[in-house]
Amino acid sequence: MNPDPKKPARVRFAPSPTGPFSIGNARTALFNWLFARHEGGKFLLRIEDTDKERSKKKFEKDILDSLKWLGLEWDEKLIRQSERLDIYEGHLQKLLKEKRAYYCFCTPEELEAERQAQLSQGLAPKYGGRCLPLTEKEVALRLRRGDSAVIRFKMPDKRVVINDIVRGRVEFDTGLFGDIIIAKGLKKPLYNFAAAVDDVEMGANQVIRGEDHLSNTPKQIVIQEALGFSHPTFAHLPLILGPDRRKLSKRKLDISLGDYKKMGYLPQAVLNFLVLLGWHPEQDREVLSVPEMIKEFSLERVQKGGAAFNKEKLDWLNTYYIRQLPTEELLVYLKPFVTSAQLSKKKLLIRILEVEKGRIKNLKEFSGIVKFFFKLPAYKKEMLIWGKTDAKITLANLRGVLEIVKSIPSGSSFKKRVENRVMAFAEREGRGDVLWPLRVALSGQAASPGPLEILGVLGKIETVKRINEAIKKLDS
Ligand code: GLU
């Protein structure tokens, strides 16, 4: 539900371009997007790139490409924090002037000594405010001298209560934070400050983000209050956990969205998978189209507990969507997985897809499977022989099948007629003795779709050619 139904919902997705776009990023983006679309509101995109060293254009591109691939189009102009430094500076100046923020010149060594002293007394470490009493004159002098300085926020000592839509009432004692650093200079705002300013300036009235940001929320609220702003409402999404219910392992599953794309997952399957990471529709259905997600999404149904990442479910959904998608549409997604020569034989590719699309878990698998249809791989003649049968019987059976195939004219009923006759022949001569060598003759491999399915894809001419090749191998 929109927190203030009088105002249209405005949510923002605020990724940092400091690494590949993760599954967690994608889930946050999707939940924001669904909320906005459900409410008829706006989904805004803000790139949090104030950290110059760690922010990279290639990661920004990854964010934009990933959102586009998922179909999560954003509204209004994209905002980059690096282009708004003057705005943050204005707000920093205001806080400095009003003495709600101050310059701090403490060195890392001094801060570390203070920390150790607090720890040794059993106290939770926090900045003790050593630079707070510095006079304006002293500060000006030291800044002019070029002493390195940061800007700290004078943390009020108060209770902040958040009525989080997902987590309910959460209370914080801001006194425990100490005076946090909000900028490393007038033109170098840090996350909590820039985000607090932007959420207000962008008119975001609902913040939806990962639970890992929960402890930032009271800090952002007090900053917004100090600037004289009201703050949005919050919804913190549950962490994504591995199947063992521990933090997602970077090496295994927490790979980027781009990696899943490269592995041949369809965006439809990924979206369906993501929406179930912490949310579920009524009646616990598992398969949802995007319009259904938009219709049914609500923050009230987001769970509090961690959401387990279940790779089998993703595979299952991908298999499902591959099978469901009209072949012509599937072909569009297949482009990166087949060679241009294969792509140019569209009709053959479509026939292959018709046979294979019910069998594959991802499109990458398809790129391996598809090859033998286009080009018969080299294989050893021994492979043609089924079990304990000998070459003579195998040869006779292949000749028998060849005669059947040759006798039936190609055309729309070719496959059906060959199938009936070959199956009758196989019943007579032994299924394994007939169908096994035919499978190997047509595919050059032991594992493949059924020989009659392959035969239907290859058509009469290619089938005859491949059986003849097998016969030649055995006959030599
Ligand atoms: N840049 C932060 C991140 O990527 C955004 C957090 C927020 O939504 O406020 O985690």
Task: Describe what this molecule looks like in 3D.
The chain is 49% helix and 10% strand. The protein has helices at residues 23-39, 57-70, 85-97, 108-120, 136-145, 191-201, 216-226, 257-262, 267-275, 290-296, 311-324, 327-334, 340-344, 346-356, 363-369, 371-374, 391-407, 414-429, 431-443, 451-475, and strands at residues 10-13, 42-47, 79-80, 101-104, 150-153, 159-164, 168-173, 181-183, 206-210, 233-237, 240-241, 307-308. Helix 17 crosses helix 19 (431-443) and helix 19 crosses helix 20. It has 476 residues and is mostly helical. It is built from 20 helices and twelve strands. It has a domain at 376-475: Arc Repressor Mutant, subunit A (Orthogonal Bundle). A three-stranded parallel sheet has the order 1-2-3. The chain has a three-stranded antiparallel sheet with strand order 4-5-8. Strands 6-7 form a two-stranded antiparallel ribbon. Glutamic acid is lined by residues 14-16, 48, 195, 209, 213.
